[in-house]
Task: inverse folding
């Protein structure tokens, strides 16, 4: 039996958010650096965070569309209402985390 694609993308999303948070901490630590090297490194870390955020938000949108498809024909996909709600919560929490990071980068 093949694995549920939602689970695979969810795992990728969780890993991406962990990477974003790790890089965000690094970006914050680099804020105290005044050398041009520190500023360049901080800019490079921010670019990496923004790129990962964009990709992750795109994945989250894909997950949301998949859940909407499942929801419209739940019995075809054999997924319970509880599981649909769990997936929606994951999507919302992940999106919120991404938006919070984006705000911190401003």
Result:
């Amino acid at each position: 039996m093949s694995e549920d694609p939602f689970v695979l993308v969810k795992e990728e999303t969780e890993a991406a958010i962990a990477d974003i948070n790790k890089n965000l901490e690094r970006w914050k630590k680099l804020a105290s650096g005044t050398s041009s090297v520190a500023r360049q490194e901080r800019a490079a870390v921010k670019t990496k965070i923004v790129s990962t955020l964009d990709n992750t938000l795109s994945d989250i949108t894909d997950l949301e569309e998949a859940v909407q498809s499942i929801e419209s024909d739940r019995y075809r996909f054999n997924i319970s209402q509880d599981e649909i709600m769990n997936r929606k919560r994951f999507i919302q929490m992940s999106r919120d985390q991404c938006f919070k990071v984006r705000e911190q980068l401003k």
Remarks:
- DSSP finds four helices and no strands in the chain.
- The CA atoms of residues 7 and 87 lie 9 Å apart.
- Residues 36-72 form the longest helix (37 residues).
- The chain has a mean pLDDT of 93.
